[in-house]
Amino acid sequence: MKKILIYTMEGKKMCFLHALMNAKQLKETGNEVKVVLEGQSVILPKKLEEEKNALYLNLKENGTIVGACYACSKILGVLEDNKKAGLELIQDMNGHAGVSKYANEGYEVLVF
Known about the structure:
The chain has helices spanning about 15-30, 45-50, 55-60, 70-75, 80-85, 100-105; strands spanning about 5-10, 30-35, 65-70, 90, 110. By secondary structure, it is of the alpha/beta class. It has a single domain, classed as 3-Layer(aba) Sandwich (Hypothetical Protein Ychn, Chain: A), CATH 3.40.1260. The chain has a five-stranded parallel β-sheet. Helix 1 links the parallel strand 1 and strand 2. The radius of gyration is 13 Å and the shape is globular.
């Protein structure tokens, strides 16, 4: 079993959904997987919540999606939307969501 952090940066829905599909597949094959939203990807939860996207909602509910960057959410105008979605707003790296916590815990970091 591996420990994998999927760190999403892209604001393109297709890219983000592929990151989530990989997270689901990796999890189903016995790996410990976490997803952190950073950069432009923080704009996507609002759309996916509105669409009731099953993949996104399942990964959020089972704790695979850890949270979203506080600073990027604020800068991109989706802070309240991400709070409403119940996402943890991560700010451990100068207001942004860092990877050092996961790297120090032995996670392999994949950037999408």
